[in-house]
Design goal:
heterodimer, A: alpha/beta, Rossmann fold, eight-stranded mixed beta sheet, 15% strand, B: alpha/beta, 2 domains, seven-stranded mixed beta sheet, 12 helices, 39% helix, 20% strand
């Protein structure tokens, strides 16, 4: 694996000049992952911020082949691309080796694209699917998704007099993906880039489907200052909100364990979407949010044989 | 002109089997499909060809029709021939991606075995599925029988991939009536089909390592309109290409195809316009009533998209009265989809024929020669100068 320094000297598959927000972690994630391979690439993209902000006709931020079809079918679309490749290989009509990487936000992956993703995984297509999970439908204006944490303020789970933020806990997508018994699934964060790039390299090397769930910050959606992107994704890991683990051929392994776990409040406080949790009347809700995180951590420890 | 016809085999097959055989001979690089009655046989037969090594196709058994069409879009954009088949609700589930396929100018070919749409759920034939997709930017070709279904699927490949067209093509056959009925047909030799469709060489595609491309970009108010206009240009060009391909196909098969079939229309004063298998019933009635001295004829549109408005108007010039038989209801309360388009096409005719719509056969309701006879009798009784018949829309054979 290249060092980060060496990686930045490589040809850029995704150029600058795109229109993602300052402080959005998604383009950082994309670059870190694409640095991990020199292979020919075809990329897929579900509808979402990354798609609209990198492909405004007649411009494109992509120096490799890239396809966007719709919101819920990125995995199915790439299934078709990869099948076309296999067909041409089988017929001896294509010489070069290609890799296939698909990007989707949490809305396009946890929710509307869930079935399409499951189909792609079950059929065993040789595609790496990357979810950049910023915990809501940010592209359409911050609506709750099944990846939104409990209590978060979104435009469809607002803080009202009766209902305070999102009422439900997050869906455990990485575990659901791992239950498809694919060769490789992992959770990562751009703040821990060695860990992320290690995982990307493994994911790109396996024969069959691979999945990376990567936490991504969103200044307008999380209501945070743009310069806090890496700090907040780091704190998500250090507070155990976003455990870093991998599932390789069915074996669960914690790849990073915070030595001195940080109090969850340190991750929640800088984010406007959690501001109300610190009002005295929402004390019980704050406790629920904390216990969601603790329960999830314990569950993963158990799966990794560390409980 | 002497017609050199290639060696052909006479076989007995169901419509679905004939379509599957055409697909085997075409041997697309990718087939992505999902089962749905009455189209399921097509992919079942095809999966046997794959399992037995008769085709090199990558067969993608998707988890829904939406994903089947999405995988076809991916495969086609990647630079290969991709095909699928569906029916009814399956086509409805594909809706969103149908527009994406045509907007991306991808030459996919899909067979649609016409079946009623839910609700109420019904597995039998009508055209509400493909008629609902009539504005999706696909070329639509309807087949009367098993032979036509086979021939249309093969021709669709050439039409779709023509550089002046580059649009997806939908080939229809009537659910159960044709899809499950055994008929005699002639099929070409495998080599002749391969030669007819030729090698597929796309100009731009994802797997072109030296020329990466961006497909499916965000296209805002400064370019979207031009791209949609270009799409219409593909459909405008398709008229000529469909006829050229039909000409080439006739040289191989001996069978002739046009935008529509005009049967005994030369001196007709009344005509019925109807698509697909019901045309066979109407043709029988035309022959019988012609024997009694009635000047009547049949028009069977084959190509519904692009709609051959001017060509149809030309063949209807001088006709006193025309009835359209629609096997779907547009719910506009102003007639079925074939009727509204045909009536619009004959608006400029002088004198303007009387036009009436008959909606029939929804959910597989049978149609009888007596029903057709009744329509002709009404048309023949029309008085000169009548333009709009009363009622404008009749529901044939429905209990009211």
């Amino acid at each position: 694996m290249p060092t980060l320094r060496e990686a930045t000297d490589k040809p850029k598959r995704m150029t600058g000049g795109h229109r993602m927000c300052a402080g959005c972690a998604a383009p950082v994630i994309v670059r870190q992952i694409l640095y991990c391979t020199d292979a020919q690439l075809v990329l897929g993209n579900a509808t979402g911020c990354l798609e609209v902000a990198t492909s405004i006709y007649p411009y494109s931020a992509w120096n490799v082949s890239w396809i966007h079809c719709a919101f819920e079918n990125a995995a199915a679309t790439l299934s078709g691309v990869e099948s076309a490749y296999r067909s041409l290989k089988k017929q001896g009509k294509i010489k070069k080796d290609f890799k296939f990487v698909c990007f989707g936000g949490d809305g396009g992956t946890y929710d509307i694209g869930f079935q399409s993703l499951s189909g792609m995984l079950e059929r065993g297509h040789n595609v790496l699917y990357v979810c950049y999970d910023n915990g809501a439908y940010m592209n359409t204006g911050i609506q709750r998704s099944s990846a939104t944490p409990r209590g978060a303020d979104t435009t469809t789970s607002p803080v009202g007099n009766t209902l305070v933020g999102k009422q439900q806990a997050r869906k455990d997508l990485t575990a659901i993906v791992a239950a498809h018994n694919i060769p490789y699934a992992a959770q990562a964060s751009p703040s821990h880039y060695r860990d992320l790039m290690n995982k990307a390299q493994k994911a790109l090397a396996v024969d069959g489907p691979a999945f990376l769930n990567v936490i991504s910050s969103c200044p307008p959606g999380w209501h945070h200052e743009p310069e806090l992107a890496m700090e907040l994704t780091r704190k998500a890991v250090e507070t155990r909100f976003w455990p870093l683990f991998e599932v390789e051929n069915g074996n669960w392994r914690m790849t990073y364990k915070p030595r001195h776990p940080v109090d969850l409040e340190e991750w929640l406080r800088p984010q406007g979407r959690f501001r109300h949790l610190f009002h005295p009347e929402n004390q019980a809700l704050l406790e629920d949010v904390k216990s969601d995180v603790e329960r999830n951590w314990q569950k993963i420890l158990q799966r990794c044989g560390e409980a | 002109m002497a017609v050199a016809v290639a060696l052909q085999k006479k076989v007995a097959m169901t419509g679905n089997e004939a379509v599957a055989q055409a697909m085997r001979q075409i041997e697309p690089d990718v087939v992505a499909a999902y089962p749905i009655t009455p189209a399921t046989d097509i992919v079942q037969y095809f999966s046997n060809f794959v399992a037995n090594g008769q085709v090199k196709t990558e067969f993608v058994t998707t988890e829904s029709e939406h994903s089947a069409m999405s995988a076809c879009v991916g495969a086609s954009a990647a630079g290969v021939r991709a095909m699928t088949a569906t029916a009814s609700n399956g086509l409805a589930l594909m809706w969103e991606v149908l527009y994406i396929a045509s907007g991306m100018r991808l030459p996919l070919v899909m067979t649609v075995v016409n079946r009623a749409l839910s609700s109420p759920i019904n597995i039998h034939c009508d055209h509400s599925d493909s008629m609902g997709a009539r504005d999706a930017g696909w070329i639509q070709i309807y087949s009367e029988n098993t032979q036509e279904a086979y021939d249309n699927v093969i021709q669709a490949i050439r039409i779709a991939q023509h550089p002046k067209v580059l649009l997806p093509v939908m080939v229809m056959l009537d659910g159960f009536i044709i899809s499950h009925a055994m008929e005699n047909l002639e099929i070409l030799e495998d080599g002749d089909v391969k030669e007819f469709i030729g090698e597929y060489r796309p100009e731009r595609y994802l797997l072109d390592a030296d020329h990466p491309i961006t497909i499916g970009a965000l296209d805002l108010n400064d370019y979207y309109f031009e791209h949609k206009r270009q799409q219409v240009e593909g459909l405008l060009q398709a008229r000529k290409v469909i006829l050229e391909v039909a000409g080439d196909y006739q040289r191989v098969s001996g069978r002739s195809y046009g935008l529509f079939e005009a049967y005994r229309m030369e001196d007709a004063e009344a005509a019925i316009v109807v698509m697909s298998s019901t045309a066979g019933t109407v043709r029988t009635v035309v022959d019988a009533m012609r024997k009694e001295g009635h000047r009547i004829g049949l028009i069977k549109p084959r190509v519904f998209r692009p709609f051959p408005a001017r060509d149809l108007a030309e063949v209807l010039r001088g006709v006193k009265a025309v009835a359209v038989m629609d096997r779907s209801e547009s719910m506009s309360t102003a007639g079925g989809p074939l009727f509204t388009e045909l009536r619009s096409a004959i608006y400029e005719l002088e004198p303007r024929p009387l036009a009436a719509d008959y909606i029939f056969g929804l959910g597989g309701r049978d149609i009888y020669p007596e029903d057709v006879c009744g329509i002709f009798q009404r048309l023949l009784a029309a008085k000169p100068g009548d333009i709009c018949s009363d009622p404008m829309v009749t529901y044939l054979g429905v209990r009211e």
